[in-house]
C-alpha cells in the first residue's frame, strides 16, 4: 500500500488522458489510410476534421443528442470530401492542390458556420463504464471507463484491418491503389472505388474532429484542430500503411501530447510555447526516421498513390 | 453522355481564360453565399471588387492598401510558383514568412536606438536569410532522408507560430511597456522603418522587392536554362533525369528561393505595415499565396494580376465586414471557393469535352 499504489494512482489518469488525446488523430488517420490504400492522396484532412468538428458541434447543440451529432459530423465532412472526389476523380484536378484547397476552404467554412457557437457548452457525452471491467483496480480507470468513441475508434481500426486483409472488396481497393491500370483492365471501377474511399476517409476525419469539439475539449473555437489533420497524415506514413500500426502511432503520439500538457501544468522551467511545439517537432522527427535508411516507409506506399487515373475510350 | 478527351497539348486560349472563368464562377457562388447570409449579393460583390478602388468615400484609404496587401502575396507566390512548376511543394511559406520577420525585427531591435543607414539593409539580409534557413529544413530532410517536404514544411508553420508567440511574450517584448505582448514599434525607429517611398500610395520597399522578384522569376523561368530544368522536372521527371537535371539541386533551389522570398515578405511586413512583432502578426498570407500562385497560372505576370485581385478581396472583405456586417470568415470561404473553381475549370485546359452517344465510361 505504498509506493506502488501511489504511482498507479497517478499513472491511471495519465493513460486515460493518453487514450483520449490519441482518439481524434487515430480516427482521421485510419480514414486517410483507406484513401491512400486506394491510391489517392487527400491532403485535406485538416479541413475535413475542422468541418466535422463544427458540424458535430452544431448538431449536438441543436438536437442535444451526442450520437446524432457524431453522425452529422461524419456526414458533413464526407460531403466536403466528395467535393475533393469530384475535383480529382471526375474533373482530373491535381490531388495535392485539391487537398490544400479543401483545407483552406474547410477552415473558412467552419469559422463561418461556427461563429454563433463560440463559448457554448455542448451536451455531455456519457461515459461508457464497461460493467465488470471498469471495476478492475488499475485498468478499470485507465482503460475501461471511457466514452464510446474511444472503443469505436479501436473497433474501426480492427474493421479496416479485416476489410483490407480478408474481404474481396478490400482486395479490390488495394488492387486499385497498387496499379490502377491493371485494376481497370480487370474490369474494376477504379473511379467508383476511389470515390467511396474518399467519402469514407472524410467521414472518419469528421468523427475525429467532432471528438475534439464535443468530448476532448469540449468547446468550439476557430481553427481548434491546430494541425491534428496534418499529424494524422504523418501518422499514415509512420504506420507504413498498416492499420494496427496506426493504433500504436496514435497512442505514442497521444502520450507525447499528454506528457507535454502535464509538464505545462506542473510548471517546468521551459516556456509553454516551446513545450507546445514539441508534438510537431516529434512528428517531423518520426517522419525523418521512417522515410530514411532501412525503415524506408516509402517502399510500403501504394503503387498508384498520387497518380491521376484517366481511362481513355 | 459527356466524354473527356485528353488534348495532345494544353489549350493556349483556355490557359488564359480559365482564371477569368473561375473568378466569374466564384462571384456567382459567393453571391449565393452572401444571399444565404441575408445580405444583398449585388451590394456585397460590388463592395468587395469595386468600391475599394472607385468609391469616393473609401478609395482614398483603400487604394494604397492594395499595394500593401498585394506585395507580400506576390513575393511569396512567385517563390511558390517556381517550386510548384518543378513539383516541389513548399506549403509552409507562412512559417518562412514568420521566421523572416523575426530575423529582420531581431536585427532592428538589437541596434535600437542607434541610428544608421546600414540597419535597414542588414534587416533585409537577415529576413531573407531567416526564410531561407527555415525552408532549408524541409529541403535538406527531403534530399538527405527522402522525407516528404509537404508535411515537414507545413508542420514547421505550427512550430514557427509558437516561436512567434514565445518571442512576442519573451525575448522581443517591449521592455518599456509592462503587461502587453509585442515588441517595440519599428515605425518609431526611423533607421529600421520600412516607410512609404511615395507618401499616400502604399508603395514601400516590399513593393519594389516584389517587382524585382517578378522580373527575376520571369527571366529565370522563361529565359534561363535553370527555368527550363524546373519546368522539365515538373512535367516529365524521367526525361529530366535523362537530360541531366540533378533533382537534389533543384529541390534546394526551389525551396531556397521560395523561403527567401517569403522571409523577405515577412521582414517588409513587420518593419512597415505591421510595425511590430506580435502574437497576431501572421494573418495567413503564406496560405493565400498558394491560391495566388495557382490563380496566376504559375506565371510571373499572372501572379501580379492574381495578387492584386486577392489583395482586393482582402480590402473589399474588410469593407464589407465593416459596412454590411459580413462575417470575416466569409472572405476566407470566398478565397477557398476561388481555388476550387480554378482547379475545376482547369479541366478545359487539358481536356476536350465531347458529346458522345451512350458509351460505357470508366
TrEMBL record, chain A:
Keywords: Cell membrane, Membrane, Transmembrane, Transmembrane helix
Stored InterPro entries: ABC_BtuC-like, ABC_transp_permease
Keyword set includes Lipoprotein: no
Subcellular compartments: Cell membrane
Lipid bilayer topology: Multi-pass membrane protein
TM ranges: 6-28, 40-61, 67-87, 99-118, 148-164, 195-214, 220-239, 246-266, 272-290
Main location: membrane
A Gene Ontology term for the protein's cellular component: plasma membrane
GO molecular function, one term: transmembrane transporter activity
UniProt-recorded name of the protein: ABC transporter permease
Higher taxonomy: Bacteria, Pseudomonadati, Pseudomonadota, Alphaproteobacteria, Rhodobacterales
Automatic annotation (TrEMBL), chain B:
Bilayer topology: Multi-pass membrane protein
Main location class: membrane
UniProtKB keywords: Cell membrane, Membrane, Transmembrane, Transmembrane helix
A Pfam family the protein falls into: BPD_transp_2
Highest taxon in the source lineage: Bacteria
The UniProt record lists the keyword Transmembrane: yes
Record field: transmembrane: 20-37, 66-88, 95-112, 118-141, 150-172, 197-221, 242-265, 277-296, 303-323, 329-348
Record's subcellular location: Cell membrane
An annotated GO cellular component: plasma membrane
GO molecular-function terms, A-Z: transmembrane transporter activity
Protein name in UniProt: ABC transporter permease
